[in-house]
Amino acid sequence: MSDDVLRIRTPIGIKYQYSAGPRVSSHLIGLMEGRFVGKRCPSCHLVYMPPRNGTCAKCGCLLGEDVEVGQRGTITTFCVVNVPFLGQTIKIPYVAATILLDGADMGMQHLIQEVEATEVRMGMRVEPVWRPREEWQPSMENVLYFRPTGEPDAPYESYAGQL
Amino acid sequence: MRDVAIIASAQAVNTATTTATPVEMLIPVVNQVLANAGMARSDIGFWCHGSCDYMTGQPFSFVSAVDALGAWPPIIESHVEADGAFALYEAWMKIQTGEVDTALVFGNGRSSSGDINRILTLQLDPYVVGPLWPDDRSIAAMQARACLEAGVITERAMAQIAARNHHNALTNPVALRRGEHSVEQLLAAPLVASPLRELDCPAHSDGVTAVIIAAGDRARSLRARPAWIRGIDHRIESQNLGNRSMTTLPSAVIAAQKAGVANDKIDVAELHAPYTHQELLLTAALGLGESTSINPSGGALCANPMMSAGLARFAEAAARIMDGSADRALGHASSGPWLQQNLVCVLEGE
Ligand SMILES: [Zn+2]
After folding, report:
1. Which of B51, B81, B90, B205 could form a disulfide with B14 if both were Cys (CB 3.0 to 4.6 A apart)?
2. Which residue of B has its CA nearest to A17?
3. Same domain, B100 and B242
């Protein structure tokens, strides 16, 4: 029938208060100071950066002491983004990479710029380019992107365990 | 059927707020229940978790809970979007299959992440009732009002239940709310959602409960007096409030029957009744009499950690068997408006 109700709108809204937790907080405070602060697992001694949700998933335990890492790091693996998509803010092709910061045992994702996509490679040494200090927030977005340092590439063995 | 028993439990101290992440809250309780059982993570055959994404407001938030388990080498694990008591039911089934002999079951929730009375509105039918945004208290108050008008309960009986549970919680170290209140004091308190007063409503809290269950001789080797699961049954009412009885709980009646509640005397019952009038409805539906001690822990009225309060009832009932103070106990867990879901478990000593 033409007057059947086929669709209704029932908007819902709930406000939540997100808590980073004490362990991730020291990491976020570090970012406000332009530092990369990770955490060491007291059981397997791996350094997590970022410190995930404050836990070592492998050991099932709470992370322990703060460990400052970086700021330089090594590209362990990467992908070249060639596909345009809605809301894209970066000119394609560009590179998203997994970066192992010096002193960390866990790679993190970030953008690679100031280099042609075709020149990016595994083992390439990179450093962060921070936003102007007055724009810093408790967020990894304080780092605009990573760029090559010009150092010789890291030997494969130094990051083979990450792959 | 394989004989399966609860052999250990642990609960976090319930709090009104917390800054820890859900997984940070879980780890100490998982460690504690393992210590209480004298077991290592590698001794656990199956892990089963109850939680709800609406509590944290994060899709797939339960995935991070696995980080509390130390899932390396890989483990066998499952999750229910429900109270941990329903995870215990799944774990009991898993042991029945013969695949595993032990299971660690846990439920957790941080009620303080949002407005819990409003979050619970989202469990209502999203077409007709949900868009009116009745909060949890208002829905419960409608049921209490219907029961009063039908003569099923009295305000005085509700106050007596509030007084007893808050008194019992004085000796429960993990309760959030406790205290001595006279019935007259309680009846003089202002209404928060007529006919409910503040202490007729649950003390919503942030909390974690973990329980270990084991089969047969494995249970006997781990605990001198395990709490044997002699019957367990889960029944559900219609999700359409208009199809529901407001003054009786037919699903709880069936669950109690199937779980064999009436086969012998029940010494202790831990009922997951968030509101005072619901304890009365449950006591009637489960056929519990004067000889049964109801909610020695203070129940969900004194600490209602969402997704963990039902499992806490099982833990409290089992504790009375394990310490020898009861021979036959009942654990009950519920979920949904007006006690829509009812899970009944009969526990016995040997
Ligand atoms: Zn570790």
Report:
1. B205
2. B113
3. no
Is residue A24 less than 8 Å (CB to CB) from chain B?
A: yes
User: Does the beta carbon of B113 lie under 8 angstroms from any beta carbon of chain A?
Assistant: yes
Q: What is the dihedral of CA B122, B125, B130, B132, to 10 degrees?
A: -160
Interchain proximity B19–A23, CB inside 8 Å: no
CA distances to B111, B149, B234, B277, B336 from B247, in Å: 28, 10, 20, 10, 16
Distance CA A132, CA B343 (A): 57
Q: What phi and psi, each to the nearest 5 degrees, are found at residue A112?
A: -110, 125
Nearest to A127 by CA among A34, A56, A62: A34
Task: Compute the distance between CA of residue A29 and CA of residue A20 in angstroms, rounded to an integer.
Answer: 11
* pLDDT score, position A1: 58
Range of the domain at A63: 18-69
Domain for residue B120, yes or no? Answer: no
Please indicate, yes or no, if residue B328 is contained in any of the structural domains: yes
The domain total for chain A is 2
- A79 forms beta bridges with A96
Domains contained in chain B, number: 2
Range of the domain at B302: 129-201+230-348
Return d(Cα B319, Cα B222) in angstroms, integer: 14
Q: Is residue B299 domain-resident?
A: yes
User: What whole-number distance in Å separates Cα of residue B106 and Cα of residue B122?
Assistant: 23
- Would residue A2 count as lying in a domain? no
pLDDT tens-digit map of B171-180: 999 999 999 9
Token readout for B178 is: 């406790």
- The predicted-structure confidence for A37-57, as pLDDT tens digits, reads as follows 999 999 999 999 999 889 999
State whether A39 and A119 are in the same domain.
no
**Host H or E run for residue B95:** helix B84-96
How confident is the model over A126-160, as pLDDT tens digits?
Answer: 999 999 999 999 999 999 999 999 999 999 999 99
Question: Using CB atoms, which residue from B68, B118, B126 is nearest to A14?
Answer: B118
Alpha-carbon dihedral B259, B264, B270, B276, rounded to 10 degrees = 100
Q: Confirm whether B10 is domain-assigned.
A: yes
Please indicate, yes or no, whether residues A86 and A155 belong to a single structural domain of this protein: yes
Q: A95 and A119 in contact (C-beta within 8 Å)?
A: no
- Which parts of chain B have pLDDT scores under 70? none
Q: Is B275's Cβ below 8 Å from some Cβ in A?
A: no
